[in-house]
Amino acid sequence: MTHVIKWDKLSFDEKALSIFLQGVLNRKKEKVYIDVENYINYLDDNYNYVDLYDLIKLTSKYFDGIVTYKLDCEDIGINMASMICAKYDYLGVPDKLLEKVISISNLKVVRNMNDIKGSRAYRQKIIFDEVKNKLNRTGLVHQVVSKNNFLIVLRDFAIKNRFACIYTSENEEDLEFRKEVLSFLKPVSPIYGWNDNEISFIKCISQYGHYALPSDWCSNQSYFEIKRKKIYKQQTKKSLIKNNKHYLSIVVSDGDNIQWLSRDFTTSSTFGCRERSKLDYKITWTISPSIYKLCPNVLDVVYGSEKSNYFISSVSGIGYANLMSFPERYLKKYCKFTTDAMKKMDLDVVCLLDNIQDIKNDDNVKNRLKYYAKNDKIIGGIWEIDPDRYSSGNGKIFYVNNKPFVSVRYSLWCPFAKVGFTPKSFLDEYVEKLNSLKPNINSEEGYTVLNFHPWSISIDDLEYVLSKLNSDIELVYADELIKLINQNVKRKE
Length: 493
Fold this sequence. Notes:
Elements: E1 2-6, H1 12-25, E2 31-35, E3 47-49, H2 52-59, E4 65-69, H3 77-87, E5 90-94, H4 98-105, E6 109-112, H5 120-131, E7 140-142, E8 145-146, E9 149-150, H6 155-161, E10 164-166, H7 172-184, E11 190-193, H8 198-207, E12 211-214, E13 246-252, H9 258-263, H10 270-276, E14 283-287, H11 291-294, H12 297-302, E15 309-313, H13 328-344, E16 349-355, H14 362-373, E17 380-386, E18 397-400, E19 403-407, E20 410-412, H15 424-435, E21 447-452, H16 459-467, E22 473-475, H17 478-488
Parallel strand pairs: 1-2, 1-3, 4-5, 4-6, 7-10, 7-11, 11-12, 13-14, 13-21, 13-22, 14-15, 16-17, 17-19, 20-21
Antiparallel strand pairs: 8-9, 18-19
């Protein structure tokens, strides 16, 4: 029986308390689940709703004491408490709730994070050094604590799995501490959560041989565990190939975002809107292979769609990393993790993300791509190249082991509008660009990858663009595009 707590009935401090309670109990016999947003749809066990304080009374025997901290967006104590509770069976309690929890549980305060003074990095390091000998070195939770981004979820996952939980910005002291923790991890470890500066953070963790799984909004991760051995099979509709067509593959970015996939991907967001559309057209979605383990219920929905969807691995495989910054000595292991997960989800194309400055040396690029290309499961890749919103590669194709890795030519990404507010004039510019493309099945110029940016472009926007395309533009899935290039375009290896 799983105990379910209603999230919207709790105060902010009580929500934090429930996360710490969940983290410890979910590594015990008791199971706790939070009813928040659409997560209740993923719960297939028998369950009962419980009051938070009643559950504390019921389960206080599982705790050896209380760690208290100040719950504040400017106080790193919540991460410090998370690390203490990851090592010991302690209950993390915000100081505002301390008296009430003590009165119902008879637990005693064993640590107070407010007693440790100093900078953010210094305070976290004090606790990290104290507990690291008992921490799990195969993962890290990086959960931001700041005025602009302060979330309390995901720490249950850190506590259950005995991961360190830290927050570091790009200042010198924070960076030094971050690098110490990254060095502590075993090579090719996932970094859960998120950060302040995407580009700098991803480059940093890539240089240490790790990868990111954007998940700072994720709930109930301490509950989920792989309970199935199901192998998924994609259902696709293949094209009738014609020589007088320009072949266009629409690839939706940001499928590495675990929280998007598990929260509203299948309902109100881009994929959900596409499923409700009256139109049917070929579209390729990037999806994280790690979702198979972190929330496999999502796959039951998306793979069951009757629309013309196709899925490829999101950047840059098992998790978000920069291929060109990743230590080569770890690439074999990283690609092994990637292909093992891809097989379970019937994915045969990998998406990559890097900067144009890092891929100027073709020999260096091909030397790294070979770790993907030598695996029979991977037939090729799609390459999103910055800084020009993934289109800096301008359609260039890298061939490795007779497999094409195709860079994005155009990116349907509006830098000045949110979803639903993109002006028609912006969309018309892309209609003109796409309609200028010429058919040539024997040339690289006859094939185009169009990136679709789901945070600025809506499905309605995309369908408007598609409605204006010339008849010599043919939509294909990413795997079809790669196979066509492989069969018809002369190699440039």
